[in-house]
Amino acid sequence: MLDLFTNTNSKKDFFSNGLMQEIQKDMDIYIASAFFTEVDVIDELIKNNCRIRIIVRLGFPTSPLALKHLLKHKNIEARFYTSHEFHPKLYIWGDKKIFVGSANLTKAALLRNQEIMIGILPDDLRFEELTYLFLGYWQEAKVLTLEEVEKYEKVYKSYKDKLDAINDFDDEVQKVLGDHNFPNIQRYEVKQSSSELFFDNFLKTYQESVHAYNFIEDEYKKKGRKVNSELIPLRLEIDSFFSFVRESHAVHETWRDQDLGWNDNNRMILNNLIDEWMNIDWAHFEQRIVKQNYPFINSILGSVDSINEATASEIVDALCVTHSFHDRLRFFKGGLDTLKEAFLNQNELSKVKNTLAYLLHDQKNPIGKRIANCIYNPNFKLNEFGQSNVQELIGWINNENMPVINGRTTKVLRYFGFDVRQVN
């Protein structure tokens, strides 16, 4: 499936179909659309008990009737801008897919106009960046109330038949309701409270992966240990087992093709692979991770004091122990040195240390809250250090025995039949 929608009759790739087919019950939905007239999609979402947060622009052709429709439902929160410059078309369908492109939430854009929309999956790095963008839009947008809609409706009716004067209409809207614009210069300066927007959704998907991991751990414990338990935590031994599975069995895209469900067949596959793993030499685990990587990362990040005493270079070297952070170097010409330079240039060392100390050693907040804040809260979020990096790092260093959750983890969990969200 291309996840490309152009509203071409011969291809029948209508964007409305793309949206409707991806709806699932109880989804969290986030929409940013400059123009809004189409309520059929909204009704379908409501029918499936989805929670909707939508941002629109008050300006022609956005319909007052459609706006009033939003305010009727308790599952909908609506906000708005009035500026011409607010012009996104962004549809976030929970943690499953994001649609982005040229189509507004109007019937013409969904079915008739020549539009270009693409679907983006969670394992795409752009997925995370687009959620940050929505956070910024949401934080700065004004809350839509019935009073605001009624003001807008008066202006709308007075200009409805004067399409040639559409710019005058928009100017009048701004005069009556104020020039409310998203400040591009502050795009990533999201206020702390907005980290709550995605918190519940994140926590559900994170716990989903941890829950699936626990089934694997229960089976693994029955087999004993590959190395002495005093050398490395069980969760990191299992992480290396996942690496073995990914490299030797769940290769390429085969992890997508396995039957869903934790059943006797998948349990048998798991046990056979654990037996195979226990009886082979895996030098990267036994020689590199056990003897070098874990002792090193623990010496740098294992306590608040060691973090504060570490140099910038030592901290980045410790982060590079994690697979997901080291894997980012493929996006940097010049390799590892360029990655390190970019990370340090884009983050103040004091903030890096504060974030790492909070993530790994804070005792006031539960681990899920700390992870979410380091992903979404600008007081803790680091540049060039995304969701997969945060989740994997806390798997290396924590007192709650939380496993490593990164892109490799979720692919292997899917290989064993667990329907978990994929992270990049």
Summed over residues and divided by their number, the pLDDT gives a mean of: 89
Number of domains: 2
Helix content bin: 40-55%
Biggest sheet, strands in spatial order?
A: 1-7-6-5-2-3-4-8
Strand runs, count: 8
Rg (C-alpha, Å): 24 Å
Sequence stretches where pLDDT stays below 50 over 5 or more residues = 185-193
Largest sheet: 8 strands, mixed
End-to-end separation in angstroms reads: 19 Å
As a percent range, the share of strand residues is: 5-15%
What is the global morphology?
A: globular
SS content category: alpha+beta
Q: What is the H-and-E element order? A: EHEHEHEEEHEHEHHHHHHHHHHHHHH
Number of helices: 19
Organism: Acinetobacter pittii
Domain PLD phosphodiesterase: 82-109
GO molecular function, one term: catalytic activity
Protein name: Alcohol dehydrogenase
Give structural notes.
- There is one protein chain.
- With 424 residues, this protein is of the alpha+beta class.
- The chain folds into 2 domains: 187 residues, Endonuclease, Chain A, CATH 3.30.870.10; 219 residues, no CATH class.
- It has an 8-stranded mixed sheet, sandwiched between helices.
- Strand 3, helix 3 and strand 4 form a beta-alpha-beta unit.
- Helix 6 packs antiparallel against helix 7, helix 8 crosses helix 17 and helix 9 crosses helix 19.
- The longest helix is centred in the middle third of the chain and has 23 residues.
- The chain is globular and about 80 Å long.
- It starts with a strand and ends in a 9-residue tail after the last helix.
- About 2% of the residues have low confidence.
- It comes from Acinetobacter pittii (Acinetobacter genomosp. 3).
- This is Alcohol dehydrogenase.
- GO terms for molecular function: catalytic activity.
- InterPro entries: PLD-like_dom, PLipase_D/transphosphatidylase.
